[in-house]
Amino acid sequence: MSVLNGKKILLGVSGGIAAYKTASLVRLFIKAGAHVQVIMTPASKDFVTPLTLSTLSKNPVHSSFFNQDDEDAVWNNHVDLALWADLMLIAPATSNTLSKMTTGNSDNLLVATYLSAKCPVYFAPAMDLDMYKHPSVLSSFTALKSFGNIMIPAESGELASGLSGEGRMAEPENIIAFLEADLESKLPLKGKKILITAGPTYEAIDPVRFIGNHSSGKMGFDLANEAANLGAQVILIAGPTHYKAKNGLVEVINVVSAQDMYDACHEYFNDVDVAIAAAAVADYRPKVVALQKIKKAADEFSIELEKTKDILASLGAIKKNQFLIGFALETENEIENAKLKIQKKNLDLIVLNSLQDEGAGFKKETNKVTFIDQDFKIEPMELKSKESVAVDILNKVVLHFAKS
Ligand code: CTP
């Protein structure tokens, strides 16, 4: 999945012949799963029509400070547009637009929006070869880079003038590749490997029956997706669940029993930077698994159980530099029990779920958690969707690496 998936992209088109290529650019953004809004300078409309770009972006195209066709002359709020964007790309960026961006000459909607943007801004220059090398254009590049804007260099080839040289706007495919590589390199968990457990485990009684629990696996899958969105390499060890990883970069390892999960965790743990145990592992399993289906006979029947291995505690016992996060599901003396688990399992952070909190627990879309760290610092969180809880947990991971 592209890192552009779900991103809100504001494309500023200025007036050069390369503007016709923005039709392909918008298509590629949409294909990558991005949301696109387009701002055009008046001159750019001579090279590509607003209708083309609005059809491809599935959004109205903005071009002037107010809508001239509208009797009530509705103002196009450039500040709102700028704040909406996760990133702004000016392509093609002509020397005229670049120089306005450096001096703050906001006589069109594109430059006014650029001046209001707080998101990363990229620009892809396009001009003739001599213009591209002119000191005044070079000083625009230098100024914009010093503002923190990112230049997508022009390419060499045949130019509209008939001359051949450097100055062609980078091809749309190359602009997309540039943006993806740049965004990926800046993801906060890039280069980190995270192991996550999810779902229930099933402990066989006989070939057709098992002991299980109501865990859906949602919390673990949300954690895995979010970790992958932040650039981590994710190994998700999941008990039986109908969930599928939304982010194709998550490696899912399906297991059934607590022993399977234990074995899989130990296979990967030494190589990971972080482990998060979100699975609801069965604490006990039948001591003997019947080889044939147990037939109905006596009025009463009991199954002898034995303890499963505590996966999280076993990881805590061998951990080196791994940042280890566990969950605690409690119904009474929540904080005290969670603190004991931090010590017993040698954790860096515990995510406490209290079943006394409305909205928390199995088969719910929401969760209400309290974070407790190694120093017993307690941080209660609001009731949130499980996706948002996953974001909060991974923010703790990001913070840990930012500090270390
Ligand atoms: N856990 C585990 N292996 C087990 C049991 C639990 O890895 N055999 C992990 C869970 O994934 C969770 C944490 O340990 O991150 C705490 O689970 P919880 O059920 O709250 O606690 P238990 O240790 O099982 O203790 P108890 O059931 O007595 O509260």
Architecture overview:
This protein has 404 residues and is of the alpha/beta class. Helix content is 33%, strand content 23%. It has 13 helices and 21 strands. An eight-stranded mixed sheet has the order 12-11-8-13-16-17-19-20, with helices on both faces. The protein has a five-stranded parallel sheet with strand order 2-1-3-4-5, sandwiched between helices. A hairpin with a 5-residue loop joins strand 9 (203-204) and strand 10 (210-211). Helix 9 crosses helix 13. The protein is elongated. The mean pLDDT is 94. Cytidine-5'-triphosphate (CTP) binds next to helix 11 and strand 16.
Topology overview:
Blueprint: E1 8-13, H1 22-31, E2 35-40, H2 50-57, H3 78-84, E3 87-93, H4 95-103, H5 109-116, E4 121-125, H6 129-133, H7 135-146, E5 150-151, E6 155-158, E7 164-168, H8 172-185, E8 193-198, E9 203-204, E10 210-211, H9 218-229, E11 233-238, E12 251-254, H10 258-268, E13 274-277, E14 284-286, E15 305-307, H11 311-318, E16 323-330, H12 334-345, E17 349-354, E18 366-367, E19 369-373, E20 378-380, E21 384-385, H13 386-403
Helix pairs in contact: 1-2, 1-8, 3-5, 4-7, 9-13
Bound molecules: cytidine-5'-triphosphate.
Cytidine-5'-triphosphate is lined by residues 197, 258, 277, 279, 281, 283, 308, 310-312, 326-329, 341.
